[in-house]
Amino acid sequence: MSGMREKSADEIVAWLQGRVDVREVPLESFSSSFLDSLRQTIASSVYARHENGDLAALHFRAFSLLGTERNRHYLALAGSGSSMAPAEAYAIIETTTGCAESNVAMLQLELTVARGVGEADLANRTGVGLAFLAAQRLLADGAY
Question: Which pTM was predicted?
Fold first, then answer.
């Protein structure tokens, strides 16, 4: 897998905008408790590459999936058997770690793969490397 690398947050945003129809939404669209929880999750995740756990250093870009034909499959998957309203389906990208979160499971897996992984993470089987491989395998196996 020579040439593997983690993508920047800007590259992940570009991938997202090329994959699905989204519009950027203000973070205020989400509750403060949700954002606090997301900050805690990222700070303690395998993607956190810092020791201080400075939650204030985490910054997000949030996107809402639009109700387009291109997004139809994602929106149907998101609703646990029924179609999710477009305003309810989201992707959030943290701009320093590149960590991405979505409430659409298939899109979450795709974001994990799109983020990429460094060769060292694969070789050393770190949490980042294992998360990448698991997402790649689930998508290849047709999980969604």
Answer: 0.85
